[in-house]
Amino acid sequence: MIQQRANFDWMLKQLHDGVPGIEMIVVLSSDGLRIARYGGDPDAADRVAAACAGVQSLAAAVAQELPGSSGEMKLVVIEIDGGYFYLMAAGDNAYLAVLADVVCEPGRMGGMMRDLVVRIGAHLTSPPRRGGQAV
């Protein structure tokens, strides 16, 4: 069961406050539905969550081509004009996405995201859906 959105606020705020340059944090399900967000516009967070489903799928397809890989996406970092995009697996069928400006230091961000996922990964699990409903 997905934990109430309000319960995520303090966890996401802690990440936001710990790394300078974060513009938006989104917790999403593997099918691209926003579970929670910190910062940014709600509509933008929904668009980011939907796009992340495609990024995650693409990364998993590429990972399958690496001998010895399980094919699971762990972390994607994309440097974009004006900043960075991070997507990290954060539990069964759940992901943590962050948009940050150029002030953000990528190594620090990856470490802080990993620490957050380790501490609360079990709470970031999203059950599979069938017909729009959790199964």
TrEMBL record:
<dbReference type="Pfam" id="PF03259">
    <property type="entry name" value="Robl_LC7"/>
</dbReference>
<dbReference type="InterPro" id="IPR053141">
    <property type="entry name" value="Mycobact_SerProt_Inhib_Rv3364c"/>
</dbReference>
<feature type="domain" description="Roadblock/LAMTOR2">
    <location>
        <begin position="9"/>
        <end position="100"/>
    </location>
</feature>
<dbReference type="InterPro" id="IPR004942">
    <property type="entry name" value="Roadblock/LAMTOR2_dom"/>
</dbReference>
<protein>
    <submittedName>
        <fullName>Roadblock/LC7 domain-containing protein</fullName>
    </submittedName>
</protein>
